[in-house]
Amino acid sequence: MSGHNVSHATNRTKRRFYPNLQKVRVLIDKRPVTLKICARCLKSLKYPRLTGYRKQI
Predict the structure, then answer these.
(1) Are strands 21-28 and 12-16 parallel, antiparallel or unpaired?
(2) Which of 14, 20, 44, 48 has its CA 20 to 30 A from that of 55?
(3) Residue 6 falls within a domain, yes or no?
């Protein structure tokens, strides 16, 4: 997603909005795996790979 930085003088410069990615270690088949998951998905556990592994976290 993109947008603008707006200064006090209302000068606009381009900027980008990046997802808040976090590294998370998850047990999959009894082995720890490191995944990069956005903070919003981690908070709600709506990440597709984690839906079957909610009980293990």
Answers:
(1) unpaired
(2) 20
(3) yes
